Amino acid sequence: MLLDQAKRAAEALTRLGVRAGDRVAVHLPLVPESVIATLACGRLDAIRTTLPVSLTVPELVARTRESDARVMITADAAFWDGAVRPVKPLLDHALARSAAAGGAPRPTVLVVNRCSRPVSWKPGRDLWWHEVLENTTSNG
């Protein structure tokens, strides 16, 4: 099942323009999708860059600039320390600050629906992970 999901994710990343040597930034808590993204990047010879969910917005601004990622994968929110904490909103702030400072072109952001929380959405940039993977043809 994990390998099938990795195959689907690799196909989805390819459709989003990821090629060998491109970077994919992963800003996820410890969830299966993090492993799936790693395996998908390996299939494509893409470079997986980790953006820890513990980073502050200023740290994320620097790391997103450094990553120069074509695609970023994040979650709506995460469970830790007994609470639901925002994840995507922090990445959104970092990307907005980076763009305001003349940062790299706007990456596609894949969003894992982890906590079913309302999240801000940038049409044309943000896509739901599960919807992108549903639209692949891989059958395992």
Helix content: 40-55%
Beginning-to-end CA distance, first to last residue: 8 Å
Give the ordered list of helices and strands: HEHEHEEEHEEH
The CATH topology label is Rossmann fold
Largest beta sheet: strand ordering: 2-1-3-6-7
Helix-strand category: alpha/beta
- Tell me what portion of residues adopts beta-strand conformation: 15-25%
Poorly predicted runs are none
What's the CATH class, please?
Alpha Beta
Overall mean pLDDT stands at 91
- The count of strands amounts to 7
Provide the number of structural domains: 1
SS summary, helix count: 5
Which shape, going by the Cα principal axes?
Answer: globular
- Multimeric state of these chains? single chain
Describe what you observe in this structure.
By secondary structure, the chain is of the alpha/beta class. The protein has one domain (2-134): Rossmann fold. The protein contains five helices and seven strands. A five-stranded parallel beta sheet has the order 2-1-3-6-7. Strand 4 and strand 5 (83-86) form a beta hairpin. One of its GO terms (molecular function) is acetate-CoA ligase activity. InterPro entries: AMP-dep_synth/lig_dom, ANL_N_sf. Keywords: Acetylation.
